[in-house]
Specification:
With 210 residues, this protein is mostly beta strands. It has a single domain, classed as 3 Solenoid (Pectate Lyase C-like), CATH 2.160.20. Helix content is 7%, strand content 28%. Strands 1, 2, 3, 4, 5, 6, 7, 8 and 9 form a nine-stranded parallel β-sheet that branches. The radius of gyration is 18 Å and the shape is elongated.
Length: 210
Amino acid sequence: MKIDTPKIPEDVTERRFTDIFYEEDPEFEMCMVTDSEFADETLERVRLYKTVIRNCNFTNTDFNRIDLTNVRFENCDLSNANLGNASMNRVEFLNCKLLGSNLTESYIGNTTFEGSILNMVMFGNSKLEKVIFDDAALESADLFDCNLKKVEFLSCSLNGASFEETPLKGIDISSSNFDSLTVSIENLKGCIVSTSQAIQFASLLGLKIR
């Protein structure tokens, strides 16, 4: 699946993330932020536009209602960060940690999570449209009552993930692995699975395969 990737100009300005406190509005545009420490902070309605964030630590930071457009995160730690009510379009998370992060009630479009750890992340009540999870860990992730449209899980670890009240029609999980998933038979209809996964799901139906 082709998705729109971040459009970031080459002539970006070097900034430290703490500089955002001195802006009239909490926003960066056309910036490169590298090696910044911004853990345990609270900064709502942040807006990042045409920006690269590299090797930064945002653990336990409250970014409620963050607005991201044309942004790339590389090797960043956003574990336990609050990204609830976020708006994301044309965003990449490359080799990032979002362990236990909150992305509930968000819109996430044209976004890639590649080589990233999203174990125990919460996506509840979010809309994901044109989103690729590539070689990502989503163990015990919570995707409760989500609207998934053109979402791909490529070689992901989905063990213990919950898709409660989330229809998986047209969603391809065939290249991903799991021992257990929480999903209803009704919401599994139309999901694209591998032969071995079909056998796993058959046990949910109580079928005995010989």
